[in-house]
Amino acid sequence: MHLVIFDCDGTLVDSQHNITAAMALAFAEHALPAPPPREILGVVGLSLAEAFAVLAPDATDGMRHSLAEHYRSVFADGRLQRGHEPLYPGVRETIHALRQQRDVVLGIATGKSKRGVARVLAQERWEGTFLTIQTADDHPSKPNPSMILTAMAEAGVGPDQTVMVGDTTFDVEMAIGAGTGAIGVAWGYHPPERLRAAGAHHIVDAGAGLLATIEERLRGTRPVSREGNMR
C-alpha cells in the first residue's frame, strides 16, 4: 500500500485571494498596515502563531494572538467570497486517477483548520476521498513532521511507501524530517528554486505532469524528461 499526502493551500487549491483578504482585514482591525501579498503567501503553510511571528515581528505576543483570532473569525463569519478557492489545473484529474488505484490511499497535511479543509472537501465533493486528514488544529506547525508521522500511522504504511506533495519549503522539510518522498509543485507560493534548495526529490512544473511524477516516485521507476519531469 502507498500513501500520497497533499498539502492544501497552494497545492490543491489556489486560496491566495481569501488568504490575503483575511490578512488585510485582520491587520486593519488592529490599525496596522498589512504586509505585501508576497510576504503573506510566503508564510502559507505555517500555523497562525508562527505566521504572525514572521509577519508582525515587532508585535507583542498578545497582539499576535489577537491578529490570529481575527484572521480565523474572518473565515468563520462569511465575509469572504465562498467558492473562491479553485482547484489548480490537473488536480481534479490526479485525485480521481489515484482514487482508482487499489494500492494507493490519500491524505492531507495542511496548515489549514479542520473547518477550512471541510469547506474544500464539500466544495469539491471529496468527502471520503482522503483516508487521513491532518491539520494545524492538532499538530505543531510545519515543518515539524508530526502531521506526516500521524498520517502514516493511520494509514499503516512506512516512509518508503509515502510521498508528500506540496508547494512550500515547509512541506518539503516536513517530508524530509519524516523520511518520506518530497514532491514540490511549481504553481504554488514558493518558487521552484526554494523547493529544490530545501531538498525536494522532484519538482512538477504543471498539473498535467503531477500524476506521472507521483506514480514514478511510488513505483521507483527511472525519471523521464518531459513536462512535469522528475529532477
Please give the structural blueprint:
Blueprint: E1 2-6, H1 16-29, H2 37-42, H3 48-55, H4 61-76, H5 91-99, E2 104-109, H6 114-124, E3 132-134, H7 146-155, E4 162-166, H8 169-178, E5 181-185, H9 192-198, E6 202-204, H10 210-219
Parallel strand pairs: 1-2, 1-4, 2-3, 4-5, 5-6
Task: Quickly list its features.
alpha/beta, 6 strands, 231 residues, 6-stranded parallel β-sheet, disordered C terminus, 10 helices
Give, in spatial order, the strands making up the sheet with the most strands.
3-2-1-4-5-6
Mean pLDDT across the residues is: 91
Tally of DSSP helical segments:
10
Helix/strand class = alpha/beta
- Topology, number of strands: 6
* Rg on CA atoms, Å: 17 Å
Taken from the alpha-carbon principal axes, the silhouette is globular
Low-confidence segments: 221-231
What order do the SSEs take from the amino end to the carboxyl end, as H and E?
Answer: EHHHHHEHEHEHEHEH
Question: How much helical structure, as a percent, in the residues?
Answer: 40-55%
**% residues in beta strands:** 5-15%
Distance between termini? 25 Å
Largest sheet: 6 strands, parallel
Describe this structure in words.
This protein is α/β, with parallel strands linked by helices and 231 residues long. Helix content is 44%, strand content 12%. It has ten helices and six strands. It has helices spanning 16-29, 37-42, 48-55, 61-76, 91-99, 114-124, 146-155, 169-178, 192-198, 210-219, and strands spanning 2-6, 104-109, 132-134, 162-166, 181-185, 202-204. Strands 3-2-1-4-5-6 form a six-stranded parallel β-sheet, sandwiched between helices. Helix 8 (169-178) links the parallel strand 4 (162-166) and strand 5. Helix 8 runs parallel beside helix 9 (192-198). The radius of gyration is 17 Å and the shape is globular. Residues 221-231 have low confidence and may be disordered.
